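This part of the workshop introduces the protein records we will be handling. An example says more than a description, so a record of this kind follows:
>
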Amino acid sequence: MAESGSSVAAGLDAIAAADPSFDAKHFITGARAAYEMIVTAFAEGDRRQLRNLLSREVYDGFDAAIGERESRGETAESRFVSIDGSTITTAEQRARTAQITVRFVSKLISVTRGRTGDVIDGNAEKVTDVTDVWTFARDVSSRDPNWKVVATEAGQ
């Protein structure tokens, strides 16, 4: 998971100390599933699904983008071809909050269509390489085992 002695390893150890049920491999499996669900729900405009997976601040940004797309009469489609990598880049325990940042490298087919169904962005036939860096957080003192996305950025 992380190189022994690295800051990521130390962060994962600190999270495990605060939350004995924490398992890094299980976290990555869940993070990959959440990543795919969130990207798909965003394309579909599924606000209910997004609300459960995102912090309020991140949700508000996604909600605004969906609203703008809807007001223009546009639809989005995202189809995962593969998630080629998911690497923990930072991990830390701050007071009761565990935060883990993951760099996802994936292959997606994404297209945005206008009101009449014409393609205005992307390509329904072309696979695009996408890198996203997302930060997940969880209050380790909470009974809720779920992590929420608290920050997203496009990665290099």
The chain has one domain: 7-154. Residues 24-44 form the longest helix (21 residues). The first strand starts at residue 75 and ends at 94. The beta strands are 75-94, 97-113, 119-122, 128-139, 148-154.
